[in-house]
Amino acid sequence: MYVGRFVVVGPEGGAYRVSSRSFPNRELTERDEALTVGPTEDAPETDNPYVSYNCLRVVETPTGETAAFGNGSHVDPIAEKLELGYPARDALAESLLALDYEKDDYDTPRIAATIGADGEALIGTVRKDALLVETVDEPTLVATYEKNAPEPIDFEAESADAAASEAYDLEFEHAVCAAGVVRTDDGFETAIENSD
Length: 196
What we know:
By secondary structure, the chain is of the alpha+beta class. Helices cover about 15% and strands about 45% of the residues. The chain has a single domain (about 5-195), classed as 4-Layer Sandwich (Glutamine Phosphoribosylpyrophosphate, subunit 1, domain 1), CATH 3.60.20. Strands 3-4-5-6-7-8-9 form a seven-stranded antiparallel beta sheet, covered by helices on one side. A six-stranded antiparallel beta sheet has the order 11-10-1-2-12-13. Helix 1 runs antiparallel to helix 2. Belongs to the archaeal IMP cyclohydrolase family.
């Protein structure tokens, strides 16, 4: 099954995976305290605004570190609102609503998640027909296609490497790259898994 890009989040950690039929020549890199999705060196040139973006940021908030991750440019305003002290629910809802779903041929939803230092985890999506933001207490997935409403998933996030690998290896089609994030006693740990 092809579900497109997706996030998985729970109180201890989560992941983001790029799955793509149209733009498979992408990879994750670490840049300026963010994990960034961008084209590989051999990728054809494109002016598509949805191909490159920060997909995961860990920011300092008034209540401690918080991780924000998702499938597009909305990750930056979510992270910025968190740094300003917005509650995670408001940062997600306002940013998703402001940027809205992607105006491409598929009306692709925007998806995002946050994990706070206290383990509070939220997941959100904005689709053409809805804005959903939910607090979750178990691993939960939302994808751009087919599974575009949050649903529980069996997912272990014992380390950031394991979370990235598990997301990459999930049975959904056209895996390109994945990012993992887990909450530790020393803050958040992140990891990248790119295709070979």
